[in-house]
User: Fold this.
Amino acid sequence: RIKAFAGFRKREEGSATLEAVLWLPVFIAFLILAADAAFIFFGQNRAYRVIQDANRSLSVGRLLTEQDVVDYLNVEIGRIAPNATVSALIDSGTITSVATIPASDLTATRFFTAFLDLDLKVGARHLVEY
Assistant:
């Protein structure tokens, strides 16, 4: 038995398993970080597209007032981020719309608390054509 234990102690066949087990949480945390960042960027891009659509709708006459734009943005951006705040302003022949979105509405896991305190500001400006 002592000979068998001495042989077991000298073998290196399972040595890579230990490093893999130690590094696995780091790799998982990195994947979670990448996923949350991707969800945030994707949500920001979707909100930007909704704002552009709202501004264009006002520009071509589908929406008539600033309040119509705000109502449209509240509905559409509310689907992306329920806690977002929106505003619209017509000034000097341009419509400017802005949405402030808490990043916590866009993350998938809420694992990294640094993302939970961020607010994204997404805005667009468009000429009013009518």
Notes: The helical segments are 2-10, 15-60, 66-80, 113-116. Strands lie at 85-91, 94-102, 119-127.
